[in-house]
Write a structure and sequence with these properties.
The chain has 124 residues and is an alpha+beta fold. It has one domain. It is 40% helix and 19% strand. The chain is built from 3 helices and 5 strands. The strands form 2 sheets. The protein has a 3-stranded antiparallel beta sheet with strand order 2-1-3, with helices on one face. A two-stranded antiparallel sheet has the order 4-5. A hairpin with a 5-residue loop joins strand 1 and strand 2. Helix 1 runs antiparallel to helix 2. The longest helix is centred in the middle third of the chain and has 25 residues. The radius of gyration is 17 Å and the shape is flat.
Amino acid sequence: MSKCRVFSKPDKSVLIVIPAPKSRRPGETEEEWLDRVFTMTVRKSQEALDAWLEKPEPVGEKELEKHRKSVDFLKNNLLVGLPHNDIDLSELPLTKEDRESWEFDENSKKIKVNQVKKQAKDQE
């Protein structure tokens, strides 16, 4: 059974990395494959942020706002240093519904819906 990696952000929301089965190399064990993909994903999240930070800020209000939103998005989704757990794909919720309210429960080692967050989101 294949696994995914659940990264827990400081606000308890989660980022989930699901490796594409086609990325597995011939002769690579599942453990080697997952380690390679997860390590590469963390590294690439940092590289993407670094690339945006190296760009000069654009001129023009709209362009500057777009640039800042991109940087904020990358910072908010940076995987470096986040605690993580590897779980079976079968442990993920069946649908992506309420995914903005998902949190990782350390006790059960499962994704759960934070009902307070869900209700707040539903009222928006």
